[in-house]
Amino acid sequence: MANKGTLVIGIIVLIILIFGGYFLFIGDSVNVYIDGENVTSQTIVSPFAGVDTNRLNKEICDYTFQSMNNTTGNAKDLQQGILRICLGYGLDNVKVKIDSSIGENKIPIVYHVEGNSMYPTLNDGQTVTVEKTKNIKVGNIVVANSPEYGRIIKRVSQIKGDQVYLTSDNTDTTQEYRNGVLYETKGITTWVNTTDIYGVVIDH
């Protein structure tokens, strides 16, 4: 009987050590990976939490896509948003890690160039990788949401406070007759607010 009692105690101690080690060294965690077009989420939670991790991962992925496709927020904001989602599942002490194809705590977004306004630097149909950031400087190529033109990709020519002057690399002017009227077309130049900037082109 003593041997059986010792065995039972040993098993209980082992279980305590396993789950104690889990909470001490691993804990609840969320690992999000972004490659610019796709998002994956892996959650590690206590088996006692009763959390539907498939549903949680889907919600985190959907939220990350939303964050990628608006002009506001950064990796820290994304992290805070994921923490709020986890809290809704009863997880109040979660470690969130944001990783990506361009490094940790960075959000890449893949865009496709439309038109020739940035020729010869960028060509129509070309794919570029943008780092989501408001940290811009003159000379950067950025993707912005222009109130006048919609989503555009242009070069930063001037920065005055919160206002950013964007220009096209292609300075050629084309002329075309439409219904007997001569139209001239040239690259877009426009002012936008820094809040309209999605991020900086880092690879093209």
From TrEMBL:
- Matching Pfam families: Peptidase_S24
> What InterPro entries does the annotation carry?
LexA/Signal_pep-like_sf, Pept_S26A_signal_pept_1_Ser-AS, Peptidase_S24_S26A/B/C
Spell out the protein name for this chain: Signal peptidase I
PANTHER family referenced in this protein's UniProt entry, alphabetically: HTH CRO_C1-TYPE DOMAIN-CONTAINING PROTEIN (PTHR40661:SF1), PTHR40661
Which parts pass through the membrane? 7-25
Q: Name one GO biological process term.
A: proteolysis
Peptidase S24/S26A/S26B/S26C domain segment(s): 109-175
Entry GO CC? membrane
- What lineage does the source organism belong to? Archaea, Methanobacteriati, Methanobacteriota, Methanomada group, Methanobacteria
UniProt KW keywords: DNA-binding, Hydrolase, Membrane, Protease, Transcription, Transcription regulation, Transmembrane, Transmembrane helix
What GO annotations for molecular function exist for this entry?
A: DNA binding; serine-type endopeptidase activity
Q: Which Gene3D superfamilies is this protein grouped with?
A: Umud Fragment, subunit A
